[in-house]
Amino acid sequence: xxLLPGRRRRRxxxxxTEAEIGRLMAAAAQRRSSTxxxxxxxTTLIGLLAATGLRPxxxxxxxxxxxNLDDGLLSIRQTKFGKxxxxxxxxxxxxxxxxxxxxxxxxxxxxxxxxxxxxxRGLRVDGGTxxxxxxxxxxxxxxxxxxxxxxWGRGPRLQDFRxxxxxxxLVEWY
Length: 174
Fold this sequence. Notes:
The N and C termini lie far apart (41 Å). The protein is globular, with a radius of gyration of 17 Å. The longest helix is centred in the first third of the chain and has 16 residues, at 37-52. It has a three-stranded antiparallel β-sheet, with no helix packed on it. The chain is built from six helices and five strands. The chain has helices at residues 18-29, 37-52, 56-60, 91-106, 127-140, 160-173, and strands spanning 67-68, 73-76, 85-88, 146-147, 151-152. By secondary structure, it is mainly α. Helix 1 (18-29) packs antiparallel against helix 2 (37-52), helix 2 (37-52) packs antiparallel against helix 4 (91-106) and helix 2 packs parallel to helix 6.
């Protein structure tokens, strides 16, 4: 014991309830910005992760060309271990993505990126920025403790939507 470094213990995933997901999306919808795109983008991101089980990086890496709303398919390119796959989405998710795209385009934010989910500046949403925003949203609804003035304690992560999705699908299948 102690001669070899110990294995890193993984954090236990948080399995979100439907109510928590709804509260997170409502908190995201309350976020204000100069164009209104921030609340729209983060509400859509949370809904997309909850409905599809995508990894956060996969959702943020989606380009407009990867989102086929006519057929309800998302093309996930070069994911973990360099693999690609196609993910079907439910009609309700397809409609939510269609509404996001229409409202995003109507806001008049000049897109400077092929990304589907855009930041206020028309660029792809950065993963670190998304994690910080999610931490702030989690604090706002009481899922994560506030530590200090501007720091967040440990709590649910964006990745936990994947665990929630897998757990629910496994229970439904069983």
